Amino acid sequence: MIHDLPWNKKPVLLKINCRQFKCHKCKKVFSEQLNFVDKSKGYTKRLASDIVQQVLNSNIHSVAQRNGLSDEEVESMLKNQASQILNINLSQIKRLGIDEIALVKGQGNYLAVLVDLDSHKPIEIVQSRRIEDIRKVLVGWRIDVLNEIEEVSIDLWSPYKKLVEELMPNANITADRFHVMKQITEELDTMRKNEKKAAMSLDDESEKAKRLEALNKSKYSLLKNEDSLNEKQKLKLQSVLEISPNLAKMHALKEQFRQMTQLNLGEIASLNY
Question: What are the residue boundaries of the Transposase IS204/IS1001/IS1096/IS1165 DDE domain, all occurrences included (predicted)?
């Protein structure tokens, strides 16, 4: 029984009748190998690849629960894919991402992951996010490999920046757009809370009720991608933007940034600001 990609959000198991053979010389019995399943694994290669992409945007425990897997299975998928990529010549890595993966969200237990930004696949999993541990891994890549790296994407943590400047002097450092977007949405949500607090202190009961009606339960409509809102959420967003110029401006900038990060360089250069 082999786990495969879900179908219409339903789990899929492949029941495969593997043939067995017996060697005439050594008399050892062995099963045929499947080219879409790694040896001794209970899941397909394409499921493992999909799980890895989910983890890079979430955390191990949540992905495991969502896909009916154990935390250990998901971590094994990460390590297995990373070990396969390490078989290639590391000098081919030109654009590197340094990111973190939470084992369980909110519990402060993290792994560091080094990602090839061109293939969007992990290169290596570090068992902690401590700078000393990441440094040890990178130093093991050799100086000539590190000198050939042209770009490194990191979050806004300064120790990462110092490590890159030290070990990869020829690399341009870019901010990870996911972390920048997180900071933008946090600032937007802080303004939403401030606007609600200001509305509650108004003496004019009519104006107070009007503003609170618009602001209550507006968080999701403000923070979610505008083009993903349903009609009810769009109406809520419109009412919020009409009563708060501050939120209207910040929301517009949030959407503009999000759209820019989805464009290629040529499209960005052609924008008329």
Answer: 96-263
Q: What is the pLDDT of residues 195-230, one digit of tens each?
A: 999 999 999 999 999 999 999 999 999 998 888 889
Q: Which residues of 135-174 are buried (b: 16+ CB within 10 A; e: fewer)?
A: eeebeebeeebbeebebbbbbeeeebbebbeebbeebeee
Cα-Cα-Cα-Cα torsion 183, 185, 188, 190, nearest 10 degrees, comes to: -70
> Hey, which CATH number is domain 91-175, 1.10.2020.10, 3.90.1150.10, 3.40.50.960, 3.30.420.10?
3.30.420.10
Q: Residue 2: which of 36, 50, 51 has the closest Cα?
A: 36
Q: What is the CA radius of gyration of the chain?
A: 24
pTM for the full model? 0.54
Element (H, E) at 11: strand 10-14
